[in-house]
Structures are given as C-alpha cells and as structure tokens.
Amino acid sequence: MRMAARGIVDRRKRYVGVTAHYDASGRVMPRSIEWDDGQVFEIDEVRDVRRAASLKTGGDGMRYTIRIKESITYLFFEDPRWFVEEKVVEMP
Questions:
Q1: CA distance 13 to 58
Q2: Tens digits of per-residue pLDDT, 55-74?
Q3: Which residues on neighbouring strands pair with residue 64, listed in sequence order?
Q4: Helix, coil or strand: residue 24
Q5: Using CA atoms, how far apart are residues 32 and 18, in angstroms rounded to an integer?
Q6: Could you give phi then psi for residue 62, rounded to 5 degrees?
Q7: Are 48 and 65 in contact (CB under 8 A)?
Q8: Longest dimension (CA), the chain
Q9: Which regions of the chain does DSSP assign to beta strands (E)?
C-alpha cells in the first residue's frame, strides 16, 4: 500500500549523473540527468546559466535553470560533480 505524502519538509543535496554537451568554445550544456536508481530524465530546455549558490542545500557553482517536461528546477555543477536540490517529503 502506498502512502500519500504530506508535503515538502526540507531539501537535501543529491548528487546525480549528467550527460552533457561541450561545444568548441568549452561551453557545457546538460542534456539529461540520471538518478542513482537508473531513471533518466531528459532536459527539455536550459533557460539560464550563471554562477550561484544553492540557498536551500549549501554549496555553489554553475547553476543551470532547466525544464524537464512542465517542471522548472535548478541543476548545479559543483566541479567535478553535479547536484540537484532533492525534495524531502513528510510521510503520514
């Protein structure tokens, strides 16, 4: 039986695998994210790239504002690893 979530109670830094394209000028554009259970999420659009800190989980680096389907989220490149701000959900 699956329990319904009550809501997001926190965020944590979650390191992920990323497939990225490097162009001739050295610019890096992520193409997909791979979760540790093997799920792959294709990135539909990169909306913004800038140096920024993760205010929710700590750490900083290049912050990519990305769209996966209808969801907009951040993907961080904290050299040499990538991370997302994973939602921690309260369960009943």
A1: 8
A2: 989 888 999 999 999 999 99
A3: 49, 75
A4: coil
A5: 6
A6: -85, 125
A7: yes
A8: 51
A9: 7-22, 28-34, 40-42, 45-53, 60-68, 71-78, 81-90
